[in-house]
Amino acid sequence: MKRTLVAMLALLLSSAAVADVDAENNIRQAMSQLAPDLKLDSVKESPVAGLYEVVFGAEVIYLSSDGKYLIQGSLIETATRKDLTEDARSAGRNKVLNDLKEEDLVVFAPEETKYTVTVFTDIDCGYCRKLHDEMDAYNALGIKIRYVAYPRAGVGSTAFNKAETVWCAENRQSAMTIAKAGKSLEEKIKTGDITLKENCAS
């Protein structure tokens, strides 16, 4: 009897494992047709039977096990009113931030870093400029500020061109401070206050 139960349990577990593999294959195939260049970070069962959580970056969607149906939105547990999707989104955001390489950012670091704040910045944003004006105070508190370029008006906009110039500068920190002060980057390049790297897109 005991051997029979063990055999049945092993069969059930192996069947479930095969079902999971089949579901993941179905979902990955469906996603490759919807978005061929998209890299999926994870595919796993959700708390809802037959529904799988798919994570890419900070985005979370749900697909049926056969890959035929896609749901975009938050999965709420009614008993607790907890947003289960937000947990996955939060983990995704943390991964995106942790994967950023500091050589690709503009970093203002104190001598001893106690905290790190990553800021998606638009050079022409008033609030972003106010934050930058207080950089010395943040650094004095041991707060490292890491800037990621985020020109709100998009590629080709004035803010985008300014960001491109800052990121192409030999001294990004100095160029960022000049740009956030509203000064002309072109004029500073002419006067030699800003030197651009060779073979830079700007």
From TrEMBL:
Keyword Lipid biosynthesis: no
Domain Thioredoxin-like fold: 111-178
Keywords: Disulfide bond, Periplasm, Redox-active center, Signal
Subcellular location: Periplasm
Name of a matching Pfam family: DsbC_N
Occurrences of domain Disulphide bond isomerase DsbC/G N-terminal (ranges): 22-86
GO cellular component, one term: periplasmic space
UniProt xrefs under SUPFAM superfamilies: DsbC/DsbG N-terminal domain-like, Thioredoxin-like
Residue stretches in coiled coil: none
The keyword Transport is assigned to this record: no
Record family assignment: Belongs to the thioredoxin family. DsbC subfamily.
Protein name in the entry: Thiol:disulfide interchange protein DsbC
Lineage, broadest ranks: unclassified sequences, metagenomes, ecological metagenomes
